[in-house]
Amino acid sequence: MRDIRFYNLTRESLIEEIRSKEPLRLAFHGDADGLASACIIASIFKVREDSDYPYSPEIFGDYVDSDLAVDLGSPLKAYDGIIIDHHPDHPDYPDYKLVLGMEPTGVILYKLFGDLIPDDKVWLVCLSACGDGQPEVIPNEVWLRSPFLWEMQGKIYRDQYRRIRTYPYPLFSIISGPINSMCRMGDVMGAYKLLRSAKSVREIINNPVAKRASEKLSEEIKRIFNSNPIIEQVKHVSIVVIESDYSVSGRVATELANSEPYMTFVVINKKTRSVSVRGILTKYITDALSERGYIAGGHAGFGGVSLLDEDEQPLEMFINDLREIARTPF
Ligand SMILES: [Mn+2]
To answer: Ion ligand 1 — residues with CB under 5 Å?
Structure first.
């Protein structure tokens, strides 16, 4: 537990403090790690589940009315609940109750409460770690308690010579895809309900709604790349503006970053006013943007910005700020 720090509460008082607030009003990040974390909490503690809670705030970090917030970064406004998180944007001396680790939030939760998580929910830890791109940090005990995670499943297809091929993956590696797709297509609460009700991992992987979301997402990504978006290169940073009704900037930025390892990509979705940053200089850029008053953050290699209204933070001003930041001395 050396890697987990407690601010304004203790390891010993944590469970008691959470229990005292049951049924918990829970806020979580609308991605695979945040959802898995919320469901881990709900598998241990009594959580309020109605039309208001749990909820995932529109803007990252913009959570107030809740007892516990997981995977949501430093709060943008005063917060009096408990925060369990791994985002590095918290101040050195936070004035709120914080449990801060370095690994995906679901992994932190396992380290805190592993023995309280029922055996049939332990795979949620794996969803959390894979969702944040760090399967390496899945605790040994998780593998031992859910051995089925290494069972293989894949598709049968014909290759270009019309030979029959199979392409199986271990189950643990294909859970986060469908959940991420549902989130990106705007169905975060649908994903929460699916995760809460699923009796097995296969129920998620083979869920028709999740499958449809994955297909729609792939179609949308294809549409965006087929439209030949403009790319503006300023030294080691490339700026791309796209237009989509869905939260696809992360996927687009990841695909671009995979195509060019030493370039950092900033993908701006004009419609949702959300921005994703991927590549080695991600932290350099999001730190510089925070300094200029933008809501920017994330973790190593994965960054994001939520732009305010056009009157407050005009897109042109943001792109100009980006250009200035990208004109690095190196
Ligand atoms: Mn996370």
So the answer is: 33, 71, 104, 132
